Amino acid sequence: GVARGPGVPAAARALAKTFDPAIVGGLVPVTPTAGAYAMALTLAYSGFVTTELRIDEHRAGAVQLTLAADGTARACLGTVNDHVTEGQYHYEPEGQRQHSHSADQELSVLVGAWTVTEGVAVVHFDRAAAGTCDPATASASTGLGRLRCIGIGATAKVPVPGLACDASPTGWPVDLGMPLTTDAVESARRPGVAPTGHSLVLGAPGVLFDVKQGGGDRTPAFTFTAGAVTLDDAAYHPKPPKAPR
Model's pTM, two decimal places? Predict the structure, then answer.
C-alpha cells in the first residue's frame, strides 16, 4: 500500500503507486533529502526465442547517486554485460548449430542539479563524461534524461531506506533500470530478451539488487538485500586483448 495521510503530497503518492508492491513492498513516501544513495545490480537471464534458439545474459553493474545540499547532483554508472546465443531460429543438425558471444563494459558520470517539488526530487543531468567517474571531466551534453524520485523507508521487500526513482525513457546510458512497476512487469514478458526498465531503487547508503529469470519463468525474480556498494572504475573498462601465444 501507499501512505495517504495529509502530509504526503499527491505527486509523491502517485509516483509511489506506480511501483509494484509485490516487488518493492508497500512504499511510504517521504521527502527526499541530500545524501549518498547507491545500488549494485546482478542479473542472470536465460530464455528461449524458439525451441532451437537460446539466449543467456549476465549483467553486473552499479549506480552511485549524490544529491548535495547545495542543489547539485552527480551520478556514476557502470555495467558489464556478457551475452551468449546458442542455436538459431530453425533446426540445424549437430555440428552446424550457431554460437555467438559478446561482452561489453560501460562507465559514465552524469552531473546536474536537483530540486524537490510536491515531495518528488527531480534530478536533471546536463553534463556527462564516458569512461570515468570523475565529475570534473564532464562536459555539456543533451539528451541525458532525468530522474524523478521519492524518499522511502525500509519495506518488507527493500530492507534499507533510500529512493525509488523513475528514469526518463531516453538518455539513460546503461542497463541499470528494471521493470518494477505493475505495467512494466507485464510488458517485460518478451521471449529471448533480458529484463530492462526505467525504475531504480537506491539504498542509503546502498542496496544489492539480484535479478534472475530462467527459461521457464514468465517474469523475473527480484531480491533486495542490504549491503555496501563499490564502484571501481577499472572493473568497467574494456579488457585489453590477450597477447598471442
Answer: 0.86
Q: What is the CA radius of gyration of the chain?
A: 19
- Compute how many other C-beta atoms are within 10 angstroms of the C-beta atom of residue 161: 18
Dihedral angle at the C-alpha atoms of 140, 142, 143, 145, nearest 10 degrees? Answer: 50
CA 131-121-171 angle, to 5 degrees, is: 35
| Each residue's pLDDT expressed in tens, for the chain with a length of 245 residues | 444 445 789 999 999 999 999 999 999 999 999 999 999 999 998 776 665 567 788 999 999 999 999 999 999 999 998 877 766 555 556 666 566 767 788 999 999 999 999 999 999 999 999 999 999 999 999 888 899 999 999 999 999 999 999 987 766 656 888 989 877 655 555 666 788 888 999 999 999 999 998 877 778 899 999 999 998 888 887 665 555 55
**Among all chains, which residue has been given the C-alpha cell 553493474?**
61
